[in-house]
From TrEMBL:
Residues 59-390 form the Aminotransferase-like plant mobile domain. It comes from Hordeum vulgare subsp. vulgare. InterPro entries: AminoTfrase-like_pln_mobile, MAIN-like. PANTHER family: AMINOTRANSFERASE-LIKE PLANT MOBILE DOMAIN-CONTAINING PROTEIN (PTHR46033:SF87), PROTEIN MAIN-LIKE 2 (PTHR46033). This is Aminotransferase-like plant mobile domain-containing protein. It holds the Pfam family PMD. GO terms for biological process: meristem maintenance. It comes from the Eukaryota.
């Protein structure tokens, strides 16, 4: 597999520093968060969230999110290769695919690519037109301006101004609060960035027209791939990883024994007699046991366990096979989880604004119940595309 490695990626890869330079690295910090209890979900938001195609996912993360394990996530990231968009394990390549996006999040795959200008020129006027207000820039005593955070608003500002929709609000105001609620949630869960403090303007801009029929699922996977591409080359103590960590964690828990928590119990699920609000596969991990051990010790333990992993320990098809596919046994699975199964094996580009990544399911056919040829057909993931960040100037280092 040496021919797959690219010096552009390998020179700063965490695995290189650990194996060749014998550095002891620490686990990355998880930047992805839950929806937070400070933002109240109002049932009046529901039709607008459903219109946007986000209702099953928002229903999932607005209730609660399980405890995530930074040591286990980092152990996977150490084995991520941007060249193939897959984890290179002793058992063979594995990765998160569109199948996992559907089953775990029920985000729509079919639709328009999530692509738009991310220019923040005229940001304040556009934001005020959409949600009625915008955060003020902070001035320092000498009259100058402080360095601004990335275009958008802090989560604290959003919560302070939009936590509760007024009881007597008309449809226009309810829609405004619903739009902000979605902006807040997707910025903390699907598109979490390196800071963990700011909701970028571009995700609110994507909600300008609620029935735009975006392919949120492919955008979520593109963003996760890009976050993993960057995170596998972060070696500082404060380095972190964003993207949809709930998606990655549930994917790992279903397939790999390393870092798998015990599912303790489930909170009662209320679908409000709406099939679109039925649970996704992630509901299996609604409440999980907390990690009690020290994170650095766990990181070493998980690394050793991953290095000795055998194919027999891997659950290659966790969602079932044949007529039993998607049968969760204990609850009724949301029909949207399997509705787009005809798209799961597409070899295609995944687009999320500046992040364009390849979906390469032919490299992990065993996850779909098929024979895996070796070596799989090579597809160039293009190092130049990976050099683009949302500022289109330089790589983000955190």
């Amino acid at each position: 597999m040496v021919w797959l490695l690219n010096d552009v990626y390998d020179a700063e890869h965490r695995a290189y520093f650990m194996s060749e330079k014998k550095m002891e690295l620490t686990p990355l910090k998880i930047r992805s968060h839950g929806a937070s209890s400070v933002m109240h979900y109002d049932e009046r938001y529901t039709p607008y969230i459903e219109m946007a195609g986000l209702l099953p996912f928002v229903q999932l993360v607005s209730r609660s999110t399980p405890n995530l394990n930074a040591a286990a996530v980092t152990t996977l990231i150490d084995r991520w290769r941007p060249e193939t968009h897959s984890f290179h394990l002793r058992t063979g390549e594995m990765t998160v695919t569109l199948q996992d996006v559907s089953m775990i999040t029920a985000l729509p795959i079919e639709g328009k690519p999530l692509w738009m200008s991310t220019d923040s020129e005229g940001l304040r006027h556009q934001m005020e037109a959409l949600i009625g207000m915008s955060p003020q820039e902070t001035e320092v005593e000498d009259g100058g301006k402080k360095d601004r955070v990335p275009a958008g608003a802090t989560f604290t500002w959003i919560a302070a101004n939009f936590a509760h929709c007024p009881e007597d609000a008309d449809d226009e105001v309810i829609q405004r609060y619903a739009r902000v609620y979605m902006w807040y949630v997707i910025s903390r869960t699907i598109f979490a960035d390196g800071t963990g403090k700011n909701a970028p303007w571009m995700w609110l801009k994507a909600l300008t027209v609620l029935d735009n029929k975006f392919s949120w699922g492919s955008a979520a996977l593109a963003y996760l791939y890009r976050q993993l591409d960057d995170a596998c080359r972060r070696t500082t103590k404060d380095g972190g990883v964003g993207g949809c960590m709930l998606l990655l964690s549930v994917w790992s828990w279903e397939r790999l024994p390393v870092g798998r928590p015990k599912s303790s119990k489930w909170n009662t699920w209320d679908d409000h007699d709406n099939p679109v609000r039925q649970p996704t596969w992630a509901y299996k991990w609604d409440l999980v046991s907390e990690v009690a051990s020290e994170v650095n010790l766990l990181y070493k333990q998980y690394t050793n366990e991953m290095d000795s992993l055998t194919p027999e320990q891997v659950e290659w098809e966790p969602y079932g096979v044949g007529t039993n596919f998607g049968d969760a046994h204990t609850f009724e699975l949301n029909a949207l989880c399997v509705q787009e199964r005809h798209l799961w094996l597409m070899r295609c580009s995944l687009i999320c604004n500046w992040a364009v990544e390849w979906h390469l399911p032919h490299r992990v056919l065993r996850q779909f119940g098929y024979f895996q040829p070796h070596p799989p057909e090579w597809v160039d993931t293009d190092t130049q595309l990976h050099r683009l960040d949302r500022r289109r100037q330089r790589k983000i280092k955190d």
